[in-house]
Design a protein that fits this description.
There is one protein chain. The chain is mainly β. The protein has one helix at 4-32; strands at residues 34-41, 47-62, 66-73, 78-85, 88-95, 107-114, 118-131, 137-141, 145-149, 154-159, 164-167, 170-177, 182-196, 201-205, 212-217, 221-226, 232-238, 243-245, 264-270, 275-281, 285-290. The chain has a domain at 30-132. The chain has a 7-stranded parallel β-barrel. Strand 4 (78-85) and strand 5 (88-95) form a beta hairpin.
């Protein structure tokens, strides 16, 4: 027994050392994940600028006269600066090391802002979600999807391949994308201009009197949904695709001098034709279907 005791003690010591090493490593992983919150007092109509190369960005409106910035960092090679200058708050995620992988270069941001905030957002990859913000908004992404809900003001969205969704958006909306799909649902906007090169487009919303709605793509599906009570002046043209309409249109009030015999076109008026709707595609299908 006296011979075995040192052996057992040695094994126990090694096991304890190994366990300690594992716990230490786990502790270092947990320590590298940081959660930070900052608050800034602001006046009416503040401007918030966000630049995040990679990660999720969530922005929600609240009733407090302050901007709250919360972020989670998964690596000690990246940091987020949040600073205030007058009535402007700037949030900028940046690398602390030149030796950083795309997975490490990630910051997940959550902001709470006053309802009348003006937003200027640049998010390369990840996602952008904004809800209940009524101020003007400019969103520029590469691959990040954009999801806006109950937004108003002058909304400008530009993406390369990110998908775009607007739910109950109002005000003026301009969208430009290369290959992202665009969905505009329950819209209350009086002016919509949306263009994508190779994505599908869906408009399902209210056509306001004196409103202007223009959807354009090179290829892909353009679908517009209407109700029999809508009042629209419609023009739909696809050069190589087809136009399929379920609308019972009256003849247009004015001649269409630009109509080409080499394209598939549809022109007409539904009810009084108070809203102008223009749909253009080169190689895609255009559907004008009744709202279910």
């Amino acid at each position: 027994m006296n011979v075995l005791r040192p052996v057992l003690t040695s094994r126990a010591a090694k096991a304890t050392t190994a366990l300690g090493t594992v716990l230490l490593c786990a502790g270092s992983v947990v320590a590298s994940s940081r959660h930070v919150e900052k608050r800034f007092k602001v006046d009416a109509h503040p401007i918030v600028t966000v630049h995040n190369p990679n990660g999720t960005l969530t922005i929600k409106a609240w009733s407090r006269p302050e901007v709250k910035v919360a972020f989670d960092l998964q690596s000690d090679k990246v940091d987020v600066d949040a600073e205030q200058s007058g009535n402007r708050v700037e949030v900028n995620a940046h690398a602390l090391s030149s030796n950083i992988s795309p997975e490490e270069f990630r910051a997940d941001l959550e902001l709470f802002v006053p309802e009348d905030t003006e937003l200027q957002i640049h998010n390369d990859s990840g996602s952008v979600d904004v809800a209940d913000v009524m101020g003007d908004m400019a969103v520029d992404t590469v691959a990040a999807g954009v999801d806006l809900q109950d937004a108003a003001g002058y909304l400008t969205i530009k993406t390369v391949e990110g998908s775009i969704k607007c739910l109950r958006c109002a005000g003026r909306l301009e969208i430009t994308s290369v290959s992202g799909n665009i969905k505009l649902l329950e819209m209350r906007s009086y002016n919509v201009r949306a263009q994508t090169w190779a994505g599908d487009m869906l408009f399902d919303g209210e056509f306001l009197p004196n409103g202007t709605y223009r959807l354009k793509n090179y290829s892909g599906l353009i679908e517009v949904r209407f109700s029999p009570a809508d009042s629209i002046d419609l023009s739909a043209t696809s050069v190589r695709g087809k136009v399929d309409s379920q609308a019972n249109l009256d003849p247009p009030r004015h001649s269409r001098a630009y109509e080409s015999k080499f394209s598939h076109s549809l022109f007409g008026v539904l009810n009084q034709g108070k809203a102008k709707v223009e749909l253009v595609s080169f190689d895609g299908t255009i559907n004008i279907h009744k709202r279910e």
